Amino acid sequence: MFDRYNRKIDYLRVSVTDRCNLRCRYCMPENGIQLIRHEDILSYEEIHEVVETAVRMGFRKVRITGGEPLVRKGITHLVAMISSIAGIEDLAMTTNGILLDKFAGLLARAGLHRVNVSLDTLDPGRYREITRLGNLGDALKGINAARDAGLNPVKINCVIRESLNEPDARAVEAFGREQGLQVRFIRQMDLKTGIFYRVVGGEGGNCPSCNRLRLTADGKIKPCLFNDMEWSVREFGAEEAIRLAVLNKPRCGTTSRTGAFSRIGG
Fold first, then answer.
1. CB neighbourhood size of 240 (10 A)
2. 104-128 burial by CB neighbour count: b if 16+ within 10 A, else e?
């Protein structure tokens, strides 16, 4: 599918939950967020229907996000459901890696192709400070487990404040080089003020070539992270919600007063 600006839209990011086992300072308040009601969260059958519809309409790349997707019960079952859809060329997941040591092999056997793991520092104290709840050792074990399970290429998402020369960023870059991991640097953004940047080492934040839509955990199709437009798959049906999102996808991001990274998956 092509939008009004002749961009080929073929990438769907699927948030399966707004819950997370960390409280990263740039993403979530210390005491958490007002969670979406259980009955408003899409079932796995509903998510499968949306993804199947998107693939039928020409989407080829799917990424599972959260919140933290691995905290949702039965997530490997969803991965298996999605991987069975003919036409998906790239099925990935973004995770903080804390539970990946437990799930990597199961995810690989369910049909997941690869993972991106969030890692902002190699200093255990700083990791705890940034995430408020996390243990760096758990994330590193998750990265190793993903590699051993064949979820390659394992990519690292590193959030920076301003510069690639920050000590944490340089340490993560060196770690990636030593371990043969691809590192992407994501400068801190602000939905409400419309401050966003291109991802260094990735495609995110590059509006002229943006090829993605987002499905929120409560069933809204969003054409842009930095925009409040959305269409409910429960109200419009999956095909019409996707069609409207592509038709109305803006040329460039502006601001979002209602969105939150914790609910959209970045």
1. 14
2. bbebbebbbbbbbbbbbbbeeeebe
What residue segments make up the domains of the chain, in order of their start? Answer: 11-264
CA distances from 263 to 16, 69, 80, 106 (A): 9, 11, 23, 25
Q: Please, which residues bridge with residue 186 across strands?
A: 159
Tokens of 32: 């958490």
Region of residue 215 (phi > 0: left; psi between -120 and 50: alpha; otherwise: beta): beta
For residue 140, count CB atoms less than 10 angstroms from its CB and return exposed for 0-12, middle for 13-18, buried for 19 or more. buried
CATH topology for 11-264? TIM Barrel (3.20.20)
- Give me the torsion for CA of 223, 71, 81, 9, rounded to 10°: 20
**pLDDT tens digits for the chain (266 residues)?**
999 999 999 999 999 999 999 999 998 888 878 889 999 999 999 999 999 999 999 999 999 999 999 999 999 999 999 999 999 999 999 999 999 999 999 999 999 999 999 999 999 999 999 999 999 999 999 999 999 999 999 999 999 999 999 999 999 999 999 999 999 999 999 999 999 999 999 989 999 999 999 999 999 999 999 999 999 999 999 999 999 999 999 999 999 988 777 767 66
* Cβ contacts of 72 within 8 Å, gap of 6 or more: 16, 17, 19, 66, 78
Residue keyed to tokens 């969803």: 78
Other CB atoms within 10 Å distance of the CB of residue 265: 24
Contact by Cβ (8 Å): 181, 143: yes
**67: preceding bond cis by omega (within 30 degrees):** yes
